[in-house]
Design a protein that fits this description.
Blueprint: H1 10-17, E1 29-30, H2 34-52, H3 60-83, H4 90-98, H5 100-109, H6 114-144, H7 151-183, H8 190-193, E2 195-196, H9 209-229, H10 240-253
Antiparallel strand pairs: 1-2
Amino acid sequence: MNHTAPELPQADADASNHPPTAQPQPRGRLTTDAPTRAFHWLFALSFAGAWLTAESERWRDLHITLGYAFGGLLVFRLLYGLIGPRQARLPLMWRRVSGLGGWLRSALASQPDLPRLATLGMGAAVLLLLLLAAPLVLSGYAGHIDWLGLEDALAELHEFFANALMALVLAHLALIAVLSLMRRKNTALPMLTGRTADAGPDLVKANRGWLAILLVATVLGFVAWQASQDFGQGTGTGTAADMQAASGDDDDED
């Protein structure tokens, strides 16, 4: 007897001939807009560059330029935190940190939530970074123009705030690493992509990429313009005391 295989329905036959296609992975939800991310990295890079050039006379002009850029970025973030979208507002930072009291009460009543503590600590570090940035910029500018003849005292104050800010930066990075290990995912990635892997609707309704591009172009343009004017020429970056000393030397020569 001849046995033939039963014929499959046409739909089943087509399915057997074509392997299942991989489903596209969800992109996650957008939680951080482009201007906030651009500010974050420009702010970090300008501070790192100013820190590395702080003790170098050769790179003094670059240090001052990066300090101005750092201050300008701080002004942008304050304005954006006041009139920008809800997820970038400054009061939201405070509400995140204010949860520390609730965490302490729950920790005393039961087992402490360590990932929650790391999240609160990271929010507190960011808030303190913004708070310390203002006196850092102001003390640097006041020392640069030799305000009230207090250049040395202002330089010490400027160095104190710079060291405090660097300590906060290192604490911020350490908390990111701890939180990434606890949650087994890269918690710094959303500051690059703007997205988290969580399910749900986007928290950011408008990414505002145009504003991020404008911010980056403004900062880079300012640094490039300063480089073409001052770097290596000693123009416009000396303190008032330096200018007075130079003037005195000219008078002696006459």
